[in-house]
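Quick one:
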Amino acid sequence: MSDDTPMNPISAESDAKMEPPANKKNKKKAYPAKSKCMDGNEAVAHVAYRENDTAFIFPITPSSPMGEAVDLWSAQNQKNLFNQELKVVEMQSEAGAAGALHGALVSGSLATTFTASQGLLLYIPNLYKIAGELLPTVIHVASRALAGEALSIYGDHSDTMLLRGCGLAMVSSFSVQEAHDMAAICQTATLNSRVPFVHFMDGFRTSHEVNKIQLISDEQLKEMLPYDKIEEHRQRALSPMHPTQRGTAQAPDVFMQLVESSNTHYQAVYGIVEKALEDFGNITSRVYKPLEYKYYGTSQPRIAIVSMGSSVPVIDSTLKQLKSEQACLIGVRLFRPWSATKFCEVLPSSVTRIAVLDRTREGGSQGEPLYLDVCTSLQVEDRTGIFVAGGRYGLGSKDFTPRMVQAVLNNMQRRNNSDIQRPFTVGIHDDVTRLSLSMPGRTLVTLPEDKVTQCVFWGFGSDGTVGANKEAIKMIGNYHEKMSVQAYFEYDSKKSSGWTISHLRFSPTIDIQAPFNVEEGQAHYVACHNESYVQAHKFDVVKYLKRRGIFFLNTGIATIKDEEERLKALEQLVSPKILRKIALKQIQFYVMDAQGLARQYGLAGRINMICTIAFFRLSKVIPLDDAVALLKASIVKTYSYKGEDVVQKNLDLLDTVVNDPDCLYAINVPSKWRTMGTEDNAKRYQNRHVALMDDEKVVKFMNDIGDPVSRLEGDNIPISKFLENNLLGGVMITGTTKFEKRNPNPSGKIPLWEPNNCTQCNQCVFVCPHAAIRPFIVTKDEGEAAPHIELFDSVKGQGAELAGKRYALQVSVLDCTGCNACVEACPEQPKALEMVQSDDNLMKKGEENWNYAMTLPERGDLVEKTTVRGSQFQTPLMEFSGACSGCGETPYFKLLTQLFGERMVIANATGCSTIWGGSFPANPYTVSKKTGRGPAWANSLFEDNAEYGLGMFTAMKQRRDRLVGLVMDYVHHFDLADDEAKAKQEEQELISLLKDWLDIRNEKSDRCTLLFDKMKPLFQALLPDNANGGTPLLTQIWSERDMFPKLSQWIVGGDGWAYDIGFGGLDHVEAFETNDVNVLVVDTEMYSNTGGQQSKATPAGASVKFAMGGKRQKKKSIGEMFMTYEHVYVASVALSNQSQVLQAMVEADKHSGPSILIAYAPCIQQGVRPQGLNDMVDECKFAVDSGYWPLYRYDPELAKESKNPFILDSKKLRKDVTSFLQRESRFINLRKKDPKIAETLWEHMNNDVHHRMEHLQQLAHGYKAFDHEDDASV
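Output:
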């Protein structure tokens, strides 16, 4: 078990059956203290596992790790306080989890669940029931923003605040320690009160922050639990032994009385929580209050700041540092039930002004929830003469810092009440409604520099930096008992190969309570693990460093032995502004070639261990010998399952980094760097991709929004800039990924084309996940005009359609991820592509050749696009996404845009495909250079995507029907008109085109679009006359011009959506023959986006999150289910058979009625071996050849021709299925953990594969009278 694995929550004392401790009352007992490093999610799960019988879970960020932890412990047969394994059940949706929770509670179970955001909203109907029936439970929430104008997976209180009317008690945790403690306190309080509780912590800021906390022992939990109340709860359960009825329908005569009958229970909650907090303090010596009051002055405060959640420690530490005489803090733990009396008792009588901070926004209201509660309390308790200002902060996890607290104080300290900004926002620049507060100029330091070490690590997604830092912080925290630690991690929205920032703090003398990022100028140590970050168009990586701090850079420049040459290379690589800061701050600068060392030891790309030991070596946070010993133990523990060879490689590498003086170089910083970064150098480092932008709107967007966000300066963008760029309501411009040029290639390898081996089949292009390799049809002159002709080979184009033209293949070297898919897909021997190690010269020439190729004419219309070869000459309208290297999803989406992109509308279910496909400000969906047309893409939610897409189709069909009627009327009026009225040549030509359009309007092709292109200038010529009194029909037709193309509606998403949460809606959409929509399911066989949890697409025998003990049920056969409707086009496809994929897409689009394509999509979460997703194409081949993934098509159109509608495209098994299972960690891991269960499940899998193949063969030959070609013929 790796160090990222949640710790075992159960101590040895749990082996005995749980019994109530004798003489519990009035007994004071000392318990041994035990501390451990963990994040907020694990801290909550640690308690919830032990105090419950059952848990109902569903994955949603950021609460999923709680469910993962309890599932893992249950799979390991760990016992709870009742000497049982917690029964963990994953449901198909949050609504399902809520219903199951309700059912468990009425059956007498101690049950719990974990959720957030939109998922929590799906609980609401059941929460009303649970509260109305007074069923004790604690629902643990990692509070998160709700999707409104855009999706945000980050934390605020938007979701939790919507529960205010459900009738639940609501408790907020301020820190990781409190999350652990409040989980236990809420369990006690809910059992004593019968009122259900919601325990919430700030998503990410608390749920994912790693702290060293004091654990509650089993004995302490036992002392807190009210066993008599547990017994009462169990006796109230539904049972035929003492039957009752629940959930009746009530008439107006009695309903209100029964609703009001529970008032006494709610009135008692406050006192019950106070008693639980008091008892907890006596047992653990950690004292909490429902309303926490803090004041560090010597007199009486006149200002109070009221807040809850992780902002409370920030405000507390700020007031403490300022020793503010004027301001006090009231931190709200118990938010519901709210007590006006208790609040006013805590509020000092001297207070005349109150600032209330809410981490949510309720548009159109008089104020946010906490603000309204405070105002009402003052009125109810007759506390007059107090001025209250409400403010918003921290939405979507925007960092809340001491400077922002200062800004709030400055606002409240203005001389007159009328001068105080009310309402206000803090942390943004609102230059439109001008609600934002001005920020103080200097950073307020609340952590003593001599007592707290602060570090920042810049990592590259999937390079192991975050995992290594989690390991390091736990090592440091566990090194000695009094060491306090804190770690928090920021991530790019890219699926991999994006930036990561790790913020680490540790202190041997003080308890760190600082839930905000390391601030500028505060870090003792900064490491940059990707050398591209220090280039001028990237990040200011040294801004966090304090004077004389340490800066570590991983760079290939470290291999240069000559010191003078090394300095020259650094001056070429590193931004002058960064070099200047290094010199002026007197920073200690070190370089190391971690990538080269990793390659040297056969661990290419795995730099985490190297950089970790460099950190311990330079920072001296703990003695180096001790750090080495801890790291070696960690290596053995973490990598032993990969084999002795891997373990030894890591150990040898570690020894080299520690002992070899040539590994790590100290840079003697020259004095000339102090004057670098002046205006003279600025032009040389201007964003090199601005020249690629040929649209003023795009240039403005990139200058105002795109570039600042990419430089991590998005916090500074004023609201007006978003409005100027027409982004109101979540609208996003197209095709911005082409300007990022992130070089997301940790391997440093790119494909090199050997034209003499190439047959121009374009199969390499077909599978490229990022559209980074493309064929070009060029003339001889164009080929010879390339900037670097030696790398712009071209050969005579094959086929009559390319007569007189040449074929060239080019790679966007700054977008290629080095995944190897194109090489694997090449069918030639020897291969026409080879992965080669890139260097600066190759990258520079490759970039310039690519930019040149992008200026060449698009000539895809010369070839038929419904062939594999021809499809890849079409410009992809989905390019350079943020998907993982080797992603198995994106090639399908790319192909859709090549076939239908200029007339397609996409409804995309939330999941991986919305993160790599729609993460602001990077939009991979783009438009044709010729026409300006391209895919129209939108995302609603996770659960409703089928319905969302159906709504699009229905609306557009209705609009198009209206257009047809208008065109018919217009043509009819023209035909009836006299000759004089028909005199205009333009109108005659338009009428002719409109008649042609009416004839082919239902044809599913580009012909309708092409006809409109011819009509457009005629409309524009005729419309000015109509504006002066001509027929309004033409104007009405023009207003519906977007409906002239025959639109192709696609509903796309992953298996979590299609098989589970969205299946009901998907089934409804597919059930009706009139719904002419197409569905693409990219099946990764798990919830990939939330971290790899099981779905009903997960096969039996897979060990994945939420099924760590191995899934026991067979995979749901969704394709066969939809075949039973008989009018649905169904296909099961994989990239190993490109012609079948393409044919299925073409047939689905042409089919008159609903369709569904289930596409096999290898995913990084599957743990493909030995090379991960570098083997993506081979993985597809293994899956098909072994029968693990059958290929078939079910075409209802064939049945109309009296042919068999079912076509089996993979007719026989070429490999044993076990050869496939042995390629993936999700199957191998179960075999290592539990060989007997794995053997049984593998045997079942083998039997199922053979049985399914026999069944599919029977379907393919079941209609002897049917006659058609069996194979895909494209």
